[in-house]
Amino acid sequence: MNALVILLVGVACLVVGYLFYGRWLAKTWGVDDSKSTPAHELEDGQDYCPAKAPVLMGHHFSSIAGAGPINGPIQAAVFGWLPVLLWVVIGGIFFGAVHDFGALFASIRNKGQSIGEVIDVSIGSRAKKLFTVFGYLVLVLVVAAFASIVASTFNGFNAEGQQIVANGQTATISLLFIVLAIIFGFLVYRRNAPLGISTIIGIVGIVAVVVIGLKCPIYVAGNVWMIILGIYILVASVTPVWILLQPRDYLSSFLLYFMMIVAFVGVVGAHPNIDIPMFTGWVDTVAPTGTSLGSMFPALFVTIACGAVSGFHSLVASGTTAKQLNKESDALPIAYGGMLIESALAIVSLIAVGYIWTSYSAGEVTTPTQVFASGISKMVATIPGLAGAETTLYSLLVLAVSVFCLTSLDTATRLARYMFQEFWLEKGETYKDAKGYKAVLCNPYVATVITVVLGVGLGMTGYAKIWPLFGAANQLLAALALLAVCCWLGNIGKNNKMFYIPMFFMLIVTLCSLFMTIKSKVGLIMAGSGDAAAYAQGILGAALFILAIILTVEGVGALSKQGKTKAAK
């Protein structure tokens, strides 16, 4: 199949979805710019801070993307390009974008509070407590995962103790990028420099940072980086958003644009045929990493999360983005549009793995980031005059992915702090109202330290042993967020029918996935071959399964009451 055809068809579908379905949702839900957003109502200069739409888009997209839209499609490509493309396009338009847009809209109409608070209002306080615990645990896993990913990307030494030049360069560039972002934020928010001029200066600064980083690599061991990253996210997640979060994420969005432009140039200029089969079968028999994904249902829908629908997005939308939204109409391009951009990136990732399918399926290149960077850079190198750009492009693409991971890392830490605080507070309270031991636990610094210690500690001591459950946990989070927004819209008298199919489909997918995981681990334990990891996965999987059932019953009960109330009228 020709890569250009896949890209054009996929992107065209996404654009049509935005123009028609996205706008219809905004009209149906009553998006209204005459209503003041929480960023203005509760502006405090730290968490609540209005941001220009392009700046907030940079933060939102950088936070939700991470390595998700690259990892998922590449791993799921074992089922063929058609199943991946269909799930990314259909899931992106009707599942993921609705999920993200709904979560952001519900949050801004509830003072920028999290989905947990929306659940409190629409379903009940018990459901809110359960969701908050679940969401917090998922965020701790995110912190552990991305801290480990970033640390391994920065690790300056291989197993033999030899220096890894590319990793040292990436580390230098990433550190200098943070300094650049602080300078950019100071110019824009404290010296009121025009955004356009500041952007030009920022882009020039990115180029300078890259040049310096390539010439001056830093070599530090991975475990040391874990500690450094822990200190970094501890500071970054409690500082005012204008100092680092907003400017860094805005500038990092240009790395995304660069990455997608390079990919577009490669696909259009080379317009190659990809070697990946259209459909390989209902069961993964390719298994490049040595571990089969199993049957396409539910594996496809759990493996591809960020490119189609991801529960983590609802935490970002209702956690940091809602507190910075300047006006309600910005929610459509930032939330709905941001998800579709991520879907487009997922399509590009599919093309990348398809281009080097022979090497990938043979197990020669298996790390998703390497697959993506290798596929795109090799594709561009086939264009006349660009043959010598492959090595440089490869390094820059790896850098771009690592920047997204770093962004997701401290955003997840900030979100986890919000959820940890919310768990101890009663309705209507802020952490400033807390008394006694709650005042200590709800203190932003204490809540952040607890989160960082748990996340980084898990990342250093073997989070990978329970990582296989993260995919199902993340998608379960999406199902619960869809359920929450669906109930909330029904409570305020808005059309919520568009949530029914995505909500129940994702519940079925995640419950099936969790059941299969539990069954597998119990089988290992009963056979006497189960280790500590098998016990941990089995227990955690069972806990998530039970939690999902309880929340689903309560949510469906709330929806049922809404239906009876309407019928009585």
Shape: globular
Query: How many helices does DSSP assign?
Result: 22
Number of strands: 0
Rg over C-alpha atoms, rounded to the nearest angstrom = 23 Å
Helix content: over 70%
Distance between the termini: 55 Å
Q: How much strand content do the residues show?
A: under 5%
State the major sheet: none
Structural class: mainly alpha
Report the average pLDDT across residues.
87
Unreliable residue stretches: none
Order of helices and strands: HHHHHHHHHHHHHHHHHHHHHH
Verbal overview:
With 569 residues, the protein is mainly α. The protein is built from 22 helices and no strands. The longest helix is centred in the last third of the chain and has 37 residues. The chain is globular. The chain starts with a helix and ends with a helix. 54% of the residues are buried. The model has no long low-confidence stretch (mean pLDDT 87).
Compact summary:
It contains 22 helices and no strands. By secondary structure, the protein is mainly α.
List keywords for this structure.
globular; mainly alpha
Give the topology, please.
Elements: H1 3-29, H2 38-41, H3 53-65, H4 68-76, H5 81-108, H6 115-122, H7 125-154, H8 165-189, H9 195-215, H10 222-236, H11 245-270, H12 296-303, H13 311-321, H14 331-355, H15 357-361, H16 368-381, H17 390-424, H18 437-441, H19 444-460, H20 470-491, H21 500-526, H22 532-568
Keywords: Cell membrane, Membrane, Transmembrane, Transmembrane helix
Transmembrane segments: 84-108, 129-151, 171-189, 196-220, 226-245, 254-274, 294-313, 334-357, 393-416, 437-460, 466-491, 498-518, 538-559
Domain CstA N-terminal: 2-356, 361-512
